[in-house]
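Instructor's aside before we start: the two examples that follow are unrelated to each other. I chose them only because their records fit on one page, so don't look for a connection. First example below.
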Amino acid sequence: MSRVDFAFGAPDRMVMACQVARKRYEAGERLVVYCSEPRRLAAFDRLLWTFDDVAFIPHATGDDAASAAMPVVLTSNAPDSLLRDDAVEAESPTWLMNLDDGCPPAYTRFARVMEIVSDADDDKLAARQRWRAYAAAGDDVRSHKIGASG
């Protein structure tokens, strides 16, 4: 069973995803970002370089030889292939952030899954479908309002 956190109310899903990636990086945690759409993933890759003038988030794509050493890895392939060996994972579990419209394949191999949802109607509709799928699978699904305290 995975814990799946939905963050609702992002003014811009991709920019918020960059901010979350920065937070995970600054906390010393590894993050795999999944999206099956290569164009969306490429746009996120470019945005990681430009969303903040002073932010630097080391990242690579999953097919890059350097990806094993990177704290943030972007992939359109099954994200579980980017998990490290069990000893490293046990000490510092890898987080999975989903930027896809559907649930990521093999997400159950990750202890934590993050979903960022904007206020756009199509984004909210897709998120509701993912929520139902996670809940039906027995995952621990939680909701958070972006900007809400506590």
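Example two begins here.
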Amino acid sequence: MKFKDRLKELRIENNCTAAKLASYLNYGGTAISNYESGRNEPSIDILIKIAEYFNVSVDYLVGKTNNKNYEFNIDKEFNKIFSELNNKDKCMIIDIIKFMKYKKYL
């Protein structure tokens, strides 16, 4: 789904008028209709504000995912990065983790 469609869907779902969203973003009256028609696209800062307003992730807002709230899988991400390291770097990371885990006992 494209941003323009997702934005309109979110507005309707949340009973939010284009004027109300425009006011929240400190925009004039036509800005939201320009987004929803595809004539304009928002800056990254505005995307973030819209996502926060509707309590969804930016990925959801731009159609990258259908999950409204982005769930970062730290274990998956760590394992992916860790598996790409050489053994020397892996040992260094393990030492750092051990230090961080046990420093509270020092």
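Residues 3-61 form a domain with the 434 Repressor (Amino-terminal Domain) fold (CATH 1.10.260.40).
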